Amino acid sequence: MANGFGKSEKAVVEEDWDVKLLRVNHPDYGEVFVAKLTSKWGGTDPIFCLPSDFHDSKRYKQLTNELMNKGRYSPYFDQLFIAYIDNLKRQGNYVTSDPDYDRFIASNTHRKLREEEADVFYRAIVEHVNNNPTVFPSRITNDFDDENSHGVTLDDEKSIKKFGRKTVAFVPSYLRDLLGISNTKKLNGVFEVLQERGVFIAVHSSQDRLLRSKTVRLVMLMYFTLTNRRLKLMPSSKPLKKLPTIGGKSRLLPFFISFLRYIIRRDNITGFLDLFGGGNIFIPQLRYFPPLSKFVYNDVDIGIVNLMTSFTEMTAAKATLDMAFWLQSEIQTEEAFHQARERRLSNFTPPIESAALTILIAEFSRAADRQTFCKENARQGISYRSLMRYLEFVPFLQGITIKCGSYDFFIRKFGHRSDFLTLLDPPYVGADCYESPFPDSEQEKMLRLINEVDMKIILCGTDNEIYDFLMKPRWHKTSLGPIPKSSSSSKGEVQVEYIWTNFIVPDFLLHSRWRYIHTL
């Protein structure tokens, strides 16, 4: 034994590798041990890995490939490397800074940011194409107009064979305006990521006769393949990973998204407010829908607000989900459940912990009421993979206003804005299943307030006498049909959902193609 190492262990490892142990800050895990493995064969960058990478099946495969490609290594050496690194820990033989590691983290962070930006911009492109078909005329008809068209839909046989059915050629100048990127280097970085994913290709006009009958000449055509396979794009009416809540409108989402987008475009709405935000299913669907530019999410539940705030930034979101994964083992009894309920709503609880506990309380309660412990849900737990799906929120919540307060503040502040649309989905009148009560007196106060504003209002609820205060001709009551009740004591029951609006709901939006929502 020499310095705590077995002779054969030390000889095998050090024959081909220079191994150093770092105790440094990791962007996902905070201060941790990191192994720096540098091949003595030379000519390659060092490999940085966490000790746990040898035990993580996905990362282990990547790590093994790196080690074998950069030096002499065999999976039979795994235990030797693990023991070598462990001995460095026991001896306290580590350093707290390393310039190579700093460069490695900076490079990876920059790449992640570029990929996140690429996700956001690609979704904006897809939304623009899907919602503006008239400015992307068919290639077959050759109706491109250099003054009004933004590109061309490649629907001819040759293009379909080459690119796939859902492909458009985009005029670069319109694309730059749509994305709002003036920095060419940044724009090229986004395109580079999209090109690697197989959804983008740039060609010079000399390589394509797309506009052969037109006088206009494009410097470059940008082809975008609108596919879900590569980027896992969310279809326009499919919800993201949803925080379970009582009274959520997921079953009505196909109608609501079509309805909201129609009103937003028809009335040139620039601001959207979701003032009883709950699980936040609407803003992500509208985030990049023009001409919207202002978004406000509000809820009175500090835990839910902390959760949504953490989803505005990738590092905070990952920290929240990691904490939720580890904390779930502590919430396996009714007593622990109610203690966690108190902690998540306490002003003394760190926001990340409050956010993590909010996920667990919602998942481990009966019918998502956040009040009644469900032992079966807690015993089943939440997989790490399922938790990671919440990261889908991040590109859509960056840059929006998230507040924890009363809805009336925003009604008073923006009520004069006729170009704003507010969605109000308060607790149902007379319901007693909500963690945060909203008594009849508050319902009446809300009705008096919204009756005086200029902004567009959509109020959701069930049939009740209190809402009869909203009378014609200013207000319009529309039935959306029966949907299942979501409270823990109402399994199998249905109720008719209504909306009250201070504008007319077009009949075609209530066409039979939406009626399937009534029977879900």
Automatic annotation (TrEMBL):
Domain of life: Bacteria
Claim: Coiled coil is one of the keywords in the record: no
Record-linked InterPro entries: Ade_MeTrfase_dom_2, MeTrfase_D12, SAM-dependent_MTases_sf
The entry's keywords: Methyltransferase, S-adenosyl-L-methionine, Transferase
Reaction catalyzed: a 2'-deoxyadenosine in DNA + S-adenosyl-L-methionine = an N(6)-methyl-2'-deoxyadenosine in DNA + S-adenosyl-L-homocysteine + H(+)
Organism, as annotated: Paenibacillus chartarius
Entry's family note: Belongs to the N(4)/N(6)-methyltransferase family.
Stated name of the protein: site-specific DNA-methyltransferase (adenine-specific)
EC annotation from Swiss-Prot or TrEMBL: 2.1.1.72
Keyword presence, tRNA-binding: no
Enzyme class: transferase
